[in-house]
Design brief:
It is a single chain. By secondary structure, this protein is of the alpha/beta class. It folds into 2 domains: 171 residues, Isopropylmalate Dehydrogenase, CATH 3.40.718; 141 residues, Rossmann fold, CATH 3.40.50.10950. It has 11 helices and 11 strands. The chain has a 6-stranded mixed sheet, with helices on both faces. The chain has a 5-stranded parallel sheet with strand order 3-2-1-4-11, sandwiched between helices. Helix 7 links the parallel strand 7 and strand 8. The radius of gyration is 20 Å and the shape is globular. About 2% of the residues have low confidence.
Length: 324
Amino acid sequence: MSETASPLTLDRKERKAEQYARLIKRAGALPAIPTVVVHPCDHTSLAGAIDAAEANLIVPLLVGPEPRIRAVAEEHGLDIAPFEITNAAHSQDAARRGAELLREARGEILMKGSLHTDELMAAVVRSDAGLRTERRISHVFAMDVATYPKPLFITDAAINIFPDLQTKRDIVQNAVDFLRALGVEQPLVAILSAIETVNPKIPSTVEAAALCKMADRGQITGALLDGPLALDNAISPEAARIKGIDSPVAGQADILMVPDLEAGNMLAKNLSFLSDALAAGIVLGARVPIILTSRADSLQTRMASCAVAAIYAHALRASKPIAS
């Protein structure tokens, strides 16, 4: 079973974070994307936006209490003179104002600062925000795992708790469209469960089979799907061979579609803390990509999140019809 070539693939022996470095370099060669940064009122979130700007990934528009933003910049010696600041009274007001700026086409990416994710997403999903699409919003972790030869994408580990079949369809399609924008022509999607056979006693195996049939019928496009697959035979060619699974996806998945948020969150954190992997994150399915940063994120992870969001934003630009 040979590995499928991918523009993101690197040799297994190359060091951790080099896959991220390639994405950051690629995004930095493109024009920087105007980005609404909501409530950057601590050192980590404000410095992260500045670092991304210096790498030519984004052009930050800072939204939040202006005195607090300026105080953080002065305290930590950060130069925010090049960046526009839109004043907002507090974090909820900043989230609401950030959504308005995106609706006004002032930015093409939304970036979370030092506020709760729930506050930010509540402003995004409001019916009057104008940021929803016909698809469900979902999250993708772009993992840089030193022992895997290419970036590994896990979805959904942050937004949809117990997604139904139609929501899972949207989650898969969001991730597929994202990878195609990154240059993976035909992403390989493993629909995960505990086992690799359909068992009515394990609902995720039945839904995995249904998703694969939906792909056969054109309800999911642009990718090869297989499932149910257990984790080992989704990412290990040897495990797939031993179990007799003859599939172009088994052993070399690009995307791991997890059964629910609990499974995805534990898988991503397992890789991060036991395998020393890096985990950049992005929210898809809205009219703009959304960067959900964490205070625990490393500089490389924050930069990678900005890089993949910028590349995707450029793809969204290219897909918009030209006004007559």
